[in-house]
Amino acid sequence: MSGSRPTGPAEVWSTSEVLAPRAFEYWRDLICATFVQLSATPTRPGRFDGRLRHADLESFEMTTVHAGGQRVRRTPQLIARAGEEYLLASIQTRGCGRIEQDGRVAELAPGEMALYDSTRPYTLHFDDTFEQVVVQVPLRGMLAETGLRDSRGVTAVKLGANSPAGVVAQFFHGLAHLHQTDPFGAATLATQGRGLMASALALSAGRAPRNEVLTRQRIQAFLRAHHADPDLTVDDVANAFLISKRTLYRLFDGTPDGVGTLLRRVRVEHAKSLLRADRGRPLESIALACGFAGERQFFRVFRHEAGMTPGQFRGTSGQ
Questions:
Q1: What are the phi and psi torsion angles at 115 (to 5°)?
Q2: Shortest CA distance to 269 belongs to which of 139, 181, 154?
Q3: Residue 294, phi then psi, degrees to nearest 5
Q4: Residues 11-159, CATH architecture
Q5: I want to staple 37 with a disulfide (CB 3.0 to 4.6 A). Which of 82, 235, 302, 315 is the partner?
Q6: How far apart are CA 176 and CA 91, in angstroms?
């Protein structure tokens, strides 16, 4: 995992590509090639099914893992053979999982996350079918950003769905979902990912994260939750977070997306999903459902963001 490949559509691998007797052997090779050198055994007899969807987003890599029960180990022998230095975060999205490292155990339910370090032994255990989003970043850079000497005190610490780290988990879960339909749009949002991983590392260490990073993500979550309101204004967003408009603009200063641009993109992404889901729904109805003042504004904004009209997008999206 080099982090140097250009951003684009994800790579997808599945055990359905091989005969059933070779499925787990093939899976073991896949996870070693995608993450780091690992040993793995299934937890249940019979056919094994697994699927990886991997995206390289330049400053970090993100993989959605959907698979049957298994026990995965990073052993001292494997570390000696290939000393990859990564910080990884597992965000549970379905089923349950367990992460063991440095004498701690993190039991994860959907919405929860925990960190682990590839330079020391760890174990991942899944009793049954599960899904996770796994984020992987170079370890040294993360430690430098947070001022930590090493990760020994932060691994296998459960970060709850309703804690500040839940915002980080929601971001990466949403980013993985968006990347399936709009990889280049996801790449734009991914510029926040490295900072959010640093925040997760700080939270695991019991330190206060960089507040601005989490506040930006909270604002993005607010826009996604309220974008269908056509009367939503910058004043409304500032008031919701008890900050001034000037502070709100400053939070997004120097990023590719100001607050207004983010709101437009959230509305356009919602419109894309509706255009795909209901090919007979009137465009005016879609416009109103996504917070546009009318069909004319919808056409103008959609064409600016997507490079085509809503009708053209509907005609070229998957049949």
A1: -105, 155
A2: 181
A3: 180, 180
A4: Sandwich (2.60)
A5: 82
A6: 11
205-259: pLDDT as tens digits = 887 555 566 677 778 788 888 899 999 988 899 888 888 888 888 877 755 567 8
φ/ψ (deg, to 5) at 148:
-85, 145
DSSP-derived secondary structure letter, 146? H
Fold of 221-316: Arc Repressor Mutant, subunit A (1.10.10)
In this structure, are residues 57 and 11 in contact, taking their beta carbons and an 8 Å threshold? no
Q: Name the one residue in this structure whose structure tokens are 């053209």.
A: 312
Q: Where in the chain is the domain with CATH 2.60.120.10?
A: 11-159
pTM of the model: 0.69
The pLDDT of residue 319: 46
Lowest mean pLDDT among 170-184, 197-211, 263-277: 197-211
Nearest to 135 by CA among 15, 39, 221, 54: 54
CB 112 within 8 A of CB 159: yes
Whole-angstrom distance, CA of residue 55 vs CA of residue 134: 10
Instruction: Provide the CB-side half-sphere exposure for 319 (13 A, CA).
Output: 1
- CATH 1.10.10.60 segments of the chain: 221-316
| Closest of 15, 16, 37, 11 to residue 24, by C-alpha | 15
What distance in Å separates the CA atoms of residue 19 and residue 144, rounded to the nearest whole number?
A: 45
Residue appearing with tokens 């603009």:
249
**How many CA atoms lie within 13 Å of 126's alpha carbon, on the beta-carbon side?**
25
Give the helix/strand (H/E) hosting 41: strand 39-42
Cα within 13 Å of Cα(210), Cβ side: 19
Which of helix, strand or coil describes residue 165?
helix
Report yes or no: 31 and 47 within 8 Å, Cβ to Cβ: no
CA count, 13 A, side-chain hemisphere, 114: 24
Closest CA to 189 of 59, 4, 307: 59
